[in-house]
Specification:
alpha/beta; elongated; Rossmann fold; 12 helices; six-stranded parallel sheet; seven-stranded mixed sheet; binds zinc ion; 2 domains
Amino acid sequence: MRELQFIVTEGMGWLEVVTGSMFSGKSEELIKRLRRSKYARQKVVAFKHASDIRYDDSKLASHSNSFIEGIPVNSVEEMKKIFFEKYSDAQVIGIDEVQFFGAEVVKFCEDLADMGKRVIVAGLDKDFKGEPFKPMDELLARAEYVDKFQAICAVCGNPATVSQRLIDGEPAYYDDLIVLVGATEAYEPRCRKCHRIKHRDDNMGNLYFIVGTGTEIGKTHVTLKLIEGDLKNKKNVMALKPIETGAELFGESLEGSDTKKYADLLEKNVKEINTYFFKNPMSPHIAAELDGKQIFIDKIKKKIDQEIKKNEILYVEGAGGLLVPYNNRYTYLDLLIDYRKKSEVIVVANNSLGTINHTLLTIETLKRNDIMIKGIIFNNKDNNIDKVLLRDNIETIEKLSGIKILKEMKYDGGLDEL
Ligand code: ZN
């Protein structure tokens, strides 16, 4: 924790803000500063909002139980009255959970600072939507000195800057105001990437990412079979193959065979299925480079976001396996991370020697990244493999991963339920 690098002359007047997400240690820091002022024999007074009844109704509480006396007040008016009646000689004034006091608290803090007081306020900088918490945004601008603290993201362990609101364990909707009777509400600190806000108009369609345990294992073949089944059930289904390498020139434009198969089955144009075709049958990052092109992840995401709004079921097939790079900073896994909680993964495994290792590695990586797995589909491509091995692959993977085996694709191309 950094210390003030300079000495504030007594009576100069000064506003400082301690801010950050929930559980970032704001109250503790405020208490520490107030306590140090007391040690310096300054007269200190602390206020907190009366609705802040986390642990004790007369002490300024923090989540780690260190406290200094704080006067609970319901409004700025009340705080002002108590201050001028009893504590107007205080040199240091602390206010905890300052965001509860509304816009008037800004003028009160400014007036105190103008009187030569040191005013230290602590509070949330952002609401659960991740938007500036009023009047903290204005206090931050007006303050002489600001410290912004981070908690630890409850999902990934990175520094957390937003308070995630959960209702019955699920991210709250943007417009959720009050807690419904019988529902449980909780908050946890999260980083930018793990913070989730649901919107009422969010599409309810199912998004499935198809992940192969390697390349050339029949992802497209399996996905086409799934689509056939959905079409038979009169589902509104769509597939995207955002990147296809090894594409061929048809006249002026490149076209890939996997994309073409989806386009034919779904009666679409290849351009509706695919975002990037590249000539060389290589990993996207190098295939793009050799074609002198760049992959824009946002363009791929925009397409996914559009299609999921229009369809009941959307399959997205990645190029190659999970850790295949799209550029030197972004892999297929990163795309799945960006869509976790909104999607599920279907793992396609080629049933052969080596499958147990490849499949378990893929599942382990997905689990570590908190990505939901719908299940595994085994593709029996080769009729000459020992049947004992094929059977054992499936049983062992199911046992060790705990993931459901959805289907088994027979060598003759039929898709069987297990
Ligand atoms: Zn995180």
